[in-house]
Amino acid sequence: MTGAKQIRFDNLPGWHREDHQKAYSAFHASASYLLDNPPKSHGDEVDIDALLACAQKALELGPELGADQARNFFEDHFELANLDEEGFVTGYFEPSFEGSRTQSADYPVPLHTRPNDLVMVTKDQDISHLSSETSFARKLDDNSLTYHVNRSEVMDGALDGQDLELVWLKNWVDAFVIHIQGSARIDLHDGSIMRVAFDGKSGHPYCSLGKRLIETGIFTKDTITMDKLVAYLRDQGQESLDLLRQNPSYIFFKEQKDLPLEYGPLAAAQIPLLPMRSLAIDRNCRTFGIPVWIETCLPQGKNALVPCKQLFFAHDTGSAIQGEARGDLFIGTGAEAGSFAGRIKQQARFTLFLPKRSR
C-alpha cells in the first residue's frame, strides 16, 4: 500500500471523542454480512482472514459494549495506516419517490431489471476495447463483450417489450436521481413501500451532468449542489431529456425485500447501509468492510461548517468514487438527507483501520 504510514491510536485526532459504542454497534451490524460474503483484498492489502476474525469476535461479544470495551475492541484488533495524500468526501442518500408497479399516464417511466445478457466483467476477460470504468458488459453469442444499451437508446425504447420493467415512475428526472444514488425507496400508489438497489450498469463511461453544466456556465464549482442540479433539470421541462441523454451510463435495479426501515438499502458489499456510518469507496483501492477514520468538516445551516472526526465503514462503491483518498458518506433516506448529502464537497483526511494479521 502506497502513501500510508502507521500511527498510534493516541495520535489519531479526535479518537478519544468518538462515540465508540455507536461505532462498535455499526461494525457489529455488518459482521454477519461480512462472514456470509467475504470481500476480496484490494490496494490496502487487508488480511481477509484477520478481518473475518474481527467480525466473528464482534458476533461473540454481542451488539452492545460499554464505551471502554468498544474502544478497546478497535485498539486490540486493528492497526492504523494514515494516508499522506489529501482526500475528498461527498455525500449520497437513498431518495424516496412515488411510483407504481404498473404503467399508466401518471407513471410512464420505468426502472429496469438487469438483462440476461449483461454480465459482470472478470479479470480474465479482455475489455481493452471498452472503458477502464467498465465493470458490466453485454455478452455476445461468441462470448466477446461489448457495451450494452446507453441511456439515450433506453429513452428511445430499446428495452421495450423485454419484460424488464421493475417499477414505474413519474418522470425521467426521478429516474436519473435514483440512477445517481444507486438505490431508492418507492412509495407505491397502493400504499406499500418498495426498496430498489443497484444490480448492474450498461458499461458505458459515466458522464457527470454537473461538470457539463459547470463547463457551460450554468453553475460554478462553488454554487452547484445536487438539489440545484435536480431543480434545474425539472425547470427545463422537455429540454432536460436532451441533457440526460448526455450521460450514456445506464443503471439496472433489483427489488430488495425484508430490509429493516432503519437501515438503508443493501450496499455493494451486501451489507445494509447505515446512516452516517457507511462509506462508499473505490473498490479498486479499498477492501469492503474495513473501518475508515475520516477527518473533515460538514455543512451546518446556510454557510457554517462543523468538524467531523469519526469512524465510517467501507460498505459501498460508486462510479464517481475514484482514488485511494476518496469517499462518499451515506447520509440516510429522503429529501432532508438528500439536501444535506448534496452539500457535502469537502477536503478530508483518511486513516485506515487494518485488521491485525494473524500471528
TrEMBL record:
GO BP terms in the entry: cell wall organization; peptidoglycan catabolic process; peptidoglycan turnover
Pfam families named among the record's database cross-references: 3D, MltA
Cellular component, GO, one term: outer membrane
Catalyzed reactions per annotation: Exolytic cleavage of the (1->4)-beta-glycosidic linkage between N-acetylmuramic acid (MurNAc) and N-acetylglucosamine (GlcNAc) residues in peptidoglycan, from either the reducing or the non-reducing ends of the peptidoglycan chains, with concomitant formation of a 1,6-anhydrobond in the MurNAc residue
Annotated GO MF terms: hydrolase activity, hydrolyzing O-glycosyl compounds; peptidoglycan lytic transglycosylase activity
Enzyme class name: lyase
Enzyme Commission code(s) on record: 4.2.2.n1
Keyword terms of this UniProt record: Cell wall biogenesis/degradation, Lyase
Sequence ranges assigned to domain Lytic transglycosylase MltA in this UniProt record: 96-254
Membrane recorded as keyword: no
Keyword Isomerase recorded: no
InterPro entries named among the record's database cross-references: 3D_dom, MltA, MltA_B, RlpA-like_sf
Record-linked SUPFAM superfamilies: Barwin-like endoglucanases (SSF50685)
PANTHER family: MEMBRANE-BOUND LYTIC MUREIN TRANSGLYCOSYLASE A
Protein name: peptidoglycan lytic exotransglycosylase
